[in-house]
């Protein structure tokens, strides 16, 4: 089967809309020098995959209900800061790597390996991207503590694409957190 080359696939958690909007309001004053990411695109990547074969996509979609049983109810934002380092090209909400989130990340990596996909090679640094450097001169903001919990709305296999002139993350398969609660 041919690779789905246009699909920049990844497994991610998406927050509830009300919490994503709240996070966007908290981030707004810190976004000078960054192109804001629309709150509808806020997500926490558990594993970057890249292009997928159709069969791999189907297998990963089929395992989502099992993985969703591990979903945390919410994740904790620790700070809003340049990412992945001071002066980095992103402004991100750094997420606490609480036990349930780390267990889910490890389970996703194990499933990727099971289907012949490389599990994430980098250390897990959970974050939600809030903005990308706009290329102009900017003075990165100092990290600022942010105590906010984001309720988890869904776990899914997603890919990025342009729709109606806007870059969006589109689900290839997803399971709502509420459905995961009922399945356990």
Description of the structure:
With 184 residues, the chain is an alpha+beta fold. It has a single domain, classed as Cyclic Phosphodiesterase, Chain: A, CATH 3.90.1140. Helix content is 27%, strand content 39%. It has helices at residues 17-27, 54-68, 99-114, 177-183, and strands at residues 8-15, 34-36, 44-50, 74-83, 90-95, 127-133, 144-163, 166-176. Strands 1, 2, 3, 4, 5, 6, 7 and 8 form an 8-stranded antiparallel β-sheet that branches. A hairpin with a 2-residue loop joins strand 7 (144-163) and strand 8 (166-176). The model has no long low-confidence stretch (mean pLDDT 88).
User: Any idea of the CATH class?
Assistant: Alpha Beta
State the end-to-end distance.
34 Å
Helical fraction equals 25-40%
Going by CATH, the architecture would be Alpha-Beta Complex
Provide the domain count: 1
Helical run tally: 4
Mean pLDDT across all residues, rounded? Answer: 88
> What series of H and E elements makes up the topology?
EHEEHEEHEEEH
CATH superfamily: Cyclic phosphodiesterase
Q: What structural class do helix, strand and pairing data support?
A: alpha+beta
Radius of gyration: 16 Å
Number of strands: 8
Flag low-confidence runs: none
Strand content: 35-45%
CATH fold group: Cyclic Phosphodiesterase, Chain: A
Largest sheet: 8 strands, antiparallel
